[in-house]
Amino acid sequence: MPHYSDHLAEWTAALEFDSLPADVVESTKLRILDVLGLALAGLGTDYGRSVRSATAAMGASGKSRIFGTGDAVGPTLAAFANAALSQSLEYDDTHNESIVHMSSPSVAAALALSETSIVTGKQLITAIALSSEIACRIGSVAPGQFHRRGFHPTGLFSPFGTALLAGKLLGLDTRQLASAVGIVGSFAAGILECWVDGTQSKFLHSGWAAQSGIVAAFLARAGTTGPEAVFEGRFGFFASHLQDAEAKRSWTRIFEGLGTTWDSRRASFKPYPVAHVIHPYIDALLRLRRHHAIRPADVREIVVPVAGFIVPVVCEPVAEKRRPRTAEHGRVSMQFTLAEAMQQGRLGKDAYAASVRSDPEVLRLADCVTYQVDPTYPGPEQFKGAVKVIMRDGTVHETIEEFNRGSAENPMSVADLIAKFEENSAGVLSSEQMKRAAAAVFALEDSPDASTLVGLTQRA
Length: 460
Hints:
By secondary structure, this protein is an alpha+beta fold. Helix content is 50%, strand content 8%. The chain has helices spanning 4-14, 22-42, 46-58, 75-86, 103-114, 121-139, 145-148, 153-170, 174-185, 194-197, 204-222, 237-241, 279-291, 311-315, 318-322, 327-330, 334-344, 354-357, 360-368, 414-425, 431-442, 452-455; strands at residues 61-65, 72-73, 94-95, 267-268, 299-306, 369-373, 385-391, 396-401. The chain has a four-stranded mixed sheet with strand order 6-5-7-8. Strands 1-2 form a two-stranded antiparallel sheet. Helix 2 runs parallel beside helix 20.
C-alpha cells in the first residue's frame, strides 16, 4: 500500500505548469512579489542585520545571492537568509487553517536554486505553487494542535514542501522525492518559547525550512534514503510531534484532491505586520475610529470576543501582552496591537517602535483592552473578529469583521499588494527598480531565466 509520501512524490513528479489553474499562477506571482519586498524590509532591522552577518560568516562564496545585498553564498545559505529575512516583520502570508507561513520558505528556496542552474519562470512558479500547497495540506491534518503544544507550524510543515520543490527543480525521480520527504521529516522543528520573552528565533524557522528542504533533496539525489512512512509511521512525524492519541488526524487532507482542490487558495496576504489572527480586530477597530471620529483619550474600554484557540497565542498572559518587551513581542499581543492602532490610527511596517512601547497613552489603552472567549467563533479556518469600544461618557461603538482582509473572502487588491511591496522595498530599491521588479514578476511565466528576479532586487 502506498505511503502518503509516495502520493506526494508522484504528484510532484507529474505536475507541470500547464496543469496549474490560472488563479493559482497569478496568486503565486503575487506571493513572490510579497516575499521579495518583505525580505528587503527585513534588511533594515537589527534582526536582519544579524542574519546577514551570520550568513556571511558561515558561508564560502557561491552563486546564490541574498536579496538586496549582492552577497553571494551557497544555495542553502541564500535560501536560509532570504526566508529568514522575509519573516522579520511578521508580515508574510498565512494559510488560515494550518497557520503555516508557506510562501517565505518556498520563494526563497526556489530562487536560491534558480541561481545554481537554469530555471525558467514557469518552472519556478510550478515549484513554488506545489511547495506551498504541500505545506498547507500537511499542516491541515491536525489544525490548531501544534500551536497549542508550543510548536511553530511553519518550521514543522514547510520543510516538506521545500524538499519536494527542491527535488522537482533538481530532477529527482519519484523514489528519490519520497526519500527527500522522509529525510526532511527528521529535520522538522520549531518551538515558540520566543513568544514568552519577545526574542527572535521564530523568524528563523522559515529560513531553516527553506534550507533543510534543499539539503534533503541533494541528499536524496545522491542516494541517501529516508523513511517511507514519515507521516503515519510508528515513530513518524505525527506520532513524535503530536503525542496525544485523542488528537484528531485527518489523513486524507494530505492527498485528497491534489491538483484539483488547491488549499493554497485559502491562504491570506497580510495588510499588517502582526500575527494573522489579530488582523480582523485591527480592521474593525480602525473602521470604528474613522467612522465615529474616536479620540483615543476618550476611550474607557475595548472589548474583543475571541476564539479559544487564539487565547494562549495572542491574549495571555495578560500582563505580558500589555507590556511587550520588544517589537517581536508586540506582534503577538492583541492588547498592545489594538492600543497602538487606536492611538496611532494605523499599523505599518514601522509599528512597535520603542518610543510607542513606552508611550503612556498607548500603555493606558493596552490596559483598557479585555477579551472574552466566544464559543461560537470559528476555528483557524476563518479569522473573524469583532470590537466593542466603550467611551468614557458611556457611548458604545461596535462592529464585526467576518473575514480577515487579505483572505479569499475579503481579498487585498493587486494595487494593495504592489503598494505593500513598494513600502517594504523603499530604502533598498529606487522607484524605477520597484517598477522593473514588479513587471518582471508579473511576466514571470515568459522568462527563460527566473534568476533575473534576484538581480532586480539588488540595492540602488
